[in-house]
Write a structure and sequence with these properties.
2 copies of one chain form a homodimer. Chain A has about 400 residues and is of the alpha/beta class. Chain A is built from 12 helices and 14 strands.
Chain lengths: ~400, ~400
Amino acid sequence: MRVLVLGGDGYLGWPQALYLSKKGYEVAVFDNQARRHFDLKHSFDSLVPIRLLQHRVERWQQLTGQSIAVYHGDTTHYESLAKAVADFQPEAMVHFAEQRSAPYSMIDREHAFHTQYNNVLGTLNIMYAIKEIVPDCHLVKLGTMGEYGTPNIDIEEGFIEIEHNGRTDVLPYPKQPGSFYHLSKVHDSHNIMFACRVWGVRATDLNQGIVYGASTYETELDPDLATRFDYDQIYGTALNRFCTQAAVGYPLTVYGNGGQTRGYINIKDTVRCIELAIESQPNAGEYRVFNQITEWFSVSDLAEKVGRVARRLGLDVQVRCIPNPRVESESHYYNVVHTKLLDLGLEPHLLDDDEIESMVRLSMKHRDRIDTRLIKPTVDWRNSENHVDYAESEPAQLAQV
Amino acid sequence: MRVLVLGGDGYLGWPQALYLSKKGYEVAVFDNQARRHFDLKHSFDSLVPIRLLQHRVERWQQLTGQSIAVYHGDTTHYESLAKAVADFQPEAMVHFAEQRSAPYSMIDREHAFHTQYNNVLGTLNIMYAIKEIVPDCHLVKLGTMGEYGTPNIDIEEGFIEIEHNGRTDVLPYPKQPGSFYHLSKVHDSHNIMFACRVWGVRATDLNQGIVYGASTYETELDPDLATRFDYDQIYGTALNRFCTQAAVGYPLTVYGNGGQTRGYINIKDTVRCIELAIESQPNAGEYRVFNQITEWFSVSDLAEKVGRVARRLGLDVQVRCIPNPRVESESHYYNVVHTKLLDLGLEPHLLDDDEIESMVRLSMKHRDRIDTRLIKPTVDWRNSENHVDYAESEPAQLAQV
């Protein structure tokens, strides 16, 4: 089966391409190099060195004999997208090609605008490309658990049965996203649901939790196959960032009181979940939603876990609560239904001390690549009008964290 | 109070500007002439002749002594928007500046893209303009009843209390919009709700029904003050279109079996509703939703009413059901809560035979301006890939309708 991985050079897209290639799928990647471009402009870098996309696919071919086709293009540039789709004729498309950072989307108006432009209109183009070029192609779309927010009732998988004034219907689950990035995914969900209904497109919307982990079995085959690992305030997700902070003696920065609870998933499970979605193709016109998480933790839980493991490795770890730059509830109900992927056969890699230890050790190994100026949060949800030039930021003083 | 009417040259924006000016508000309009530009490109025209924006405001000043400031600009062009907002310093903004046609949004990819670009990103710019320039300004946003779709339960005003597994929360009402246009309004609603929560913006989201009527008390003062009246397949809403069809002996074209039921409102009530929203300013951070309708009808109901009145005027009226170009349920439950505007003091102008008769007579008066080629629906929800050049359309044969 031919699978086109949109955003196939990113943190998740690249391991996904390798995983599917290893499993015998015919894989192509489509990427606009936006994530690497941000790093170039703002002097950010992955903790783990990564090779150019072309070098990566060449190394993969040397090691496995499998080829991965590369298309350079942009989902917001319909001609480049349509050309790739027409050429490769995918039977499934995995869509990672979105601006994926909540803080990025809250930097200022330009970044909010760019996030919604890229994500919402890029995905709209993808729906048209499917409809017009490969109408049977299955769209596997990465959504986010953040679409739901933190309602005071159980979070269901995409839809909820509502009884109201003696009548009943099954309706899309209400959404309360917490940033312009999360909003863009809510907009996508509505657009995709509509395209399925009106055009008979088949789609699976994966509301993924926060991903942690530095590698998959495939990326571990060779350093040239490594995927990126972000620890900075813009792209670094909580657990990855905490492991890096522990390695350099930077306090684990808990936003607010740390009671914010979120769903998490190991990167090794992400790549398997997407395979499960591809294998279990929906019917024409069907719009499915799976909650792609395996467990949930509060931010404080994670800081405590990382602190314990890192201290065992001889590191001096502090945990520090800092003012929360986000607008979010720090004490809330959280219970998520996530049975659909388990029913399809997912066997979760749950978070244990070995996993954390490997991430802390990786951070220690690359300690000299860590720029601590990139860690302190400067993007404030309440007051995001100033364009921040990260390259000109002052070095963060630990005492000011 | 200073009120900036965004899209203040349109079907509703212009009467709104006059209404508020008459009531003593200090009014400015902001418009990009997009609606008139479409007419120029595609040889469409209003049934009722309309004057240039500049001539309209000059005539209004001659007649009433009231001045209305004009800003030429585009919400997607932030600099022009910010300049107008900074200059006029509005205390309320009424936002009509959206692409407002469902069929337009379904013409092809380019029109879907343009609709969501203009509406979603334009409104995002407006939110930033408020936050950064006039943080206390009240946004009065035109949404649509079409955001809700046709659920099998009562439609509440924006939010619904849900009890689920023994727990309860009040959550945003689930949305099931039926076109890329309606989707754009759903996206707006989510973005605005978020801006209120995070930045403390105050907003009223008016989920308006389908508007009918050719004039308000203000536009009736002089022919130079007339607002546009659309009868074509793209912009002509059901009742307006039926009245025009009756006048020229074109069968009243009911899409499908006509069971589609929707909320309606008289244009005279629209302008009052918005005044009521402005008068009852929400608190900082408050996001209110009002359902702006006064009654509901099925499409068949409307055709029957128009037919009866028109025949009384001596017209030979046929009603013809044609294949539904839209994807929508033609038999469904529909019950809408719409008490908030009534509670604020709205006294509805309900649809009666006199209102219909005046619209039919208006259509008869301007019969020679009606281009019947523009009536037949060519935009198909299921198959919208072809860019249609209306100017090159063949004259519609009545027999083919």
